[in-house]
Amino acid sequence: xxxxxxxxxxxxxxxxxxxxxxxxxxxxxxxxxxxxxxxxxxxxxxxxxxxxxxxxxxxxxxxxxxxxxxxxxxxxxxxxxxxxxxxxxxxxxxxxxxxxxxxxxxxxxxxxxxxxxxxxxxxxxxxxxxxxxxxxxxxxxxxxxxxxxxxxxxxxxxxxxxxxxxx
Length: 167
Known about the structure:
Layout: H1 6-10, H2 18-23, E1 41-44, E2 51-56, E3 63-68, E4 80-82, E5 89-91, E6 95-101, H3 105-108, E7 112-118, H4 123-127, H5 146-165
Antiparallel strand pairs: 1-2, 2-3, 4-5, 6-7
């Protein structure tokens, strides 16, 4: 992913107001992000831990999505869970349900879509082996190459973005 400026990030959001985008806090380590290892930028808002944000590169420019973490977001009965974007297995606390208001009038009416995703939104780093799940779960060996797994992750993320933007 190409590095983005604060202005590019703030102006990319499609499912929140300009005021909300202006008030969101960037990741604490924004100046040190490993852009070369990221396929999308994702973070939990340091000033509002029940809010998270995704910025996905697109040909026409970055596309940002504001997300909410429901108060009861983890299925505590599960011993392990799977990220629906990168398919990394985690202990149940390693994934969380993130809910995005739909873009446009449907979102203003309260309509949302959600997905279970790595709680730290570091899918790219997990696939590249730069980060490991905190509590190891059974890891399934895949015959896919890294590029194929990255392409699958981008496809899963694109499908979620399409549901949010209704495109």
